[in-house]
Specification:
- This protein has about 375 residues and is of the alpha/beta class.
- It has 15 helices and nine strands.
- It has two domains: about 220 residues, 3-Layer(aba) Sandwich (Rossmann fold); about 140 residues, Cytochrome-c3 Hydrogenase, Chain A, domain 2.
- The strands form three sheets. Strands 2-1-3-7-9 form a five-stranded parallel beta sheet, with helices on both faces. The protein has a two-stranded antiparallel ribbon with strand order 4-8.
- It binds ligand FSX, iron/sulfur cluster (SF4) and FE3-S4 cluster.
Length: about 375
Amino acid sequence: MNELNVVSKLSARGYSRRDFLKLCTVMAASMGLPLSAGEKIASAVESPTRPPVIWISGQGCTGCTESLLRTTHPTLEHLILDMISLDYNETLNAGAGHQAEKFMEQSIEKNIGKFVLVVEGSIPTKDGGIYCKVAGTPFVDIVKNTASKAAAVIAIGSCASWGGIPSAEPNPTGAKGVSKVLPGATVMNIPGCPANAYNFTSAVAYYLTYKKLPALDKQGRPKFAYSRLIHENCERRPHFDAGRFAEKFGDEGHKLGYCLYKLGCKGPVTYNNCSILGFCDVGSWPVKAGHPCFGCSEEDVGFSIPQFVEADLEKHSLFTPSATPADITYQRGGNTTATAAGLVGLAVGAALGAGVVASRKLKSEEEASNQ
Ligand code: FSX
Ligand code: SF4
Ligand code: F3S
């Protein structure tokens, strides 16, 4: 893939080189990198060498692949498919059966230590992993064998990150995430059910540009995407701060777009950037659509804590200092529920707004000095 190819492909779709550079700059900004990194990303993406990507799937719903393909951004899905060489993906393969498996083997052997392995779906480990086999081989063995030859391993979606839906109690297949079956290996997790395509694309662009994975948090997630709680940037946050809550699905508060905390929203305990990015370019995300966040991108929240259990506001003292815990009380028919939570939220929320901007700036400077 050379510059002519990328740019001419874009222009065939009605987008100019300027649009392409703009997209790379936006990508850099969303990763907290200095704007100048946009140019570096652009030249990495235009590089003639595209890293081979082997994308294998275990126990998942294929929503992660769908999420990637359903982006309506003018260039995103084309960009990702142009900047990598997607050598194997069961959902997208033109071939099937022995032919496809043979092609995958050849691609792996030809690119030992050079390809990126993307795993989608969880890995059943009970009874020798017999609950998910591909071409007669237990998926767990395929993951171990392929990962040992890969340059980098990415777990896409909550299932691959730590088990997701298939690992929910009673976890009949012994479903696990990739890092659990590859102890000691560095695995970048891009959780979400499904994962946000932008986070995946940005992480791949970072890898192509800097030849290393971006900084990861304790759960193996890229910090650029998972360092802020959903609650911090939620559009319903002013209602939380003012103590205005939907009490039941379909009630007046729900219709008026009030905060979904009392319906079990896990935004206060979930790190992800859904409230900033939205999904698939329609600008929507679960909370905007009226459904509480269920914490899909947080290990030990989504698929572990029941939907209607209220989030523990003291878990992260960031916005509700433990010295003054929020007083969330149900008040039906009253004029207001402007409780201690609201007042604390207002004060801390205002401070946070400034903090978010400051920390983004600091992060950019820190990243810049690391490049
Ligand atoms: Fe899991 Fe991916 Fe949820 Fe589905 O396959 S993260 S079930 S949206 O899509 O693995
Ligand atoms: Fe938004 Fe949920 Fe926080 Fe309410 S509790 S402000 S709906 S993230
Ligand atoms: Fe998941 Fe919550 Fe975002 S459920 S998709 S982390 S809003």
